[in-house]
Design goal:
four-stranded mixed sheet; 13 strands; Peroxisomal Thiolase, Chain A, domain 1; binds acetyl coenzyme *A
Length: about 325
């Protein structure tokens, strides 16, 4: 018998306000066609003026706990992946803990930009396997709208706000084969030499301001395609499986062309790929758990399906997680 981290429940939350591509035309010099053709995005959700990342995270966490009928007091660790915390400190994770009346437990944020949720899953998996925690709330939550330069058409049309969550639970009674439910492996990478391709031009110890996103889109695109393909191959090889054994690819939702390219390299049809970028835009660390919950609640991903999660973002950072749902 071995110990695995099983995804028991998923949840999500999207702010009510929707900005369509047509709405973006009245904000910057762009066109609906340009945005959709270059990125696949049709609309994005934008948080209200007084809404914060913690509000979104709390709502997504509540949804996950309710969906799995899981008691908040069973949670012994909260990890929030975010790039847009309410404050420099305390973490969004402790705000979730307070709002949901979760007893004293481990609570912290993870910062790996758009790869944040993949990193958080990797950390949570290690905590469960090592016996440090049994029931972990893993959340990806972002208010990207608050760090966008709304005059920069090369970035502001691409991002949106939202949050997604999963509850990981320890299962000690698995055989240790690919037939078991749970996470099989995580593969996390970073290349700090590429930190200037995608960054925010502010921060507490530099400008004492929050700053705005700056991105060399073409360069990031090129590395995204390469890294996604590399990490997917690495994950398949580590588990000695072939692409046809994967039921669903759940990629970071930055650009439909990056997603299609990864699926093509895997030889997977787009009918096996979860796509929400058209509806949500790029919600950074929230994009994967949002897509996952969308596919689970929409009846696509079912218990027992093999899922491959992958993402990349600022840093540059990238990674993948293989799991049986
Ligand atoms: N509307 C109209 N025209 C525009 C817009 C816009 N919103 N933005 C740029 N353009 C123009 C450019 O000025 C350029 O014009 P020029 O040729 O006259 O100079 C032209 O469109 C083409 O621009 P490119 O940047 O070459 O367009 P590209 O096809 O590369 O698409 C995009 C841009 C969508 C940003 C793409 O490069 C991309 O998706 N990059 C990767 C993004 C990503 O994956 N990020 C990682 C995660 S994000 C995170 O970690 C926070």
């Amino acid at each position: 018998m071995t110990r695995r981290a099983v995804i028991q429940a998923t949840g999500s939350y999207l702010p009510k306000k929707i900005l369509t591509n047509a709405d973006m035309e009245s904000i910057v010099d762009t066109s609906s066609e340009w945005i959709e053709q270059r990125s696949g995005i049709k609309q994005r959700h934008i948080g209200a003026e007084n809404e914060t990342t913690a509000d979104l995270a709390i709502a997504a966490a509540r949804d996950a706990l309710d969906s799995g009928n899981i008691a908040p007091d069973s949670i012994d660790c909260i990890i929030v992946a975010t790039t847009t915390p309410d404050q420099t400190f305390p973490s969004v994770a402790v705000k979730v803990q307070a709002a949901l009346n979760i007893p004293q437990c481990i609570a912290f944020d993870v910062q790996a930009v758009c790869t944040g949720f993949v990193y958080a899953l990797g950390v949570a998996n290690s905590f469960i396997i090592s016996g440090q925690a049994r029931n972990i709330l893993v959340i990806g939550a972002e208010m990207m709208s608050k760090i966008l330069n709304w005059e920069d058409r090369t970035t502001c049309v691409l991002f949106g706000d939202g949050a997604g969550a999963v509850v990981l639970q320890a299962d000690e009674n698995v055989q240790g084969t690919l037939d078991d439910r749970g996470i099989f492996s995580s593969h996390l990478h970073a290349n700090g030499a590429q930190k200037d391709l995608l960054y925010v031009d502010g921060g507490p110890s530099s400008t004492q301001t929050t700053g705005h996103i700056v991105m060399q889109g073409k360069e990031v695109f090129k590395y995204a395609v390469q890294y996604m393909s590399d990490v997917v191959k690495e994950t398949l090889a580590a588990n000695d499986i072939t692409p046809d054994q994967i039921d669903w690819l759940v990629p970071h939702q930055a650009n439909i062309r990056i997603i299609e390219s990864t699926a093509k390299k895997l030889g997977m049809g787009m009918d096996k790929v979860v796509v929400t970028v058209d509806q949500h835009g790029n919600t950074s660390a929230a994009s994967i758990p949002l897509a996952l919950d969308n596919a689970v609640k929409g009846g696509k991903i079912k218990r027992g399906d093999m899922i491959l999660i992958e993402g990349m973002g600022g840093g540059l950072t990238w990674g993948a997680v293989l799991a049986r749902f």
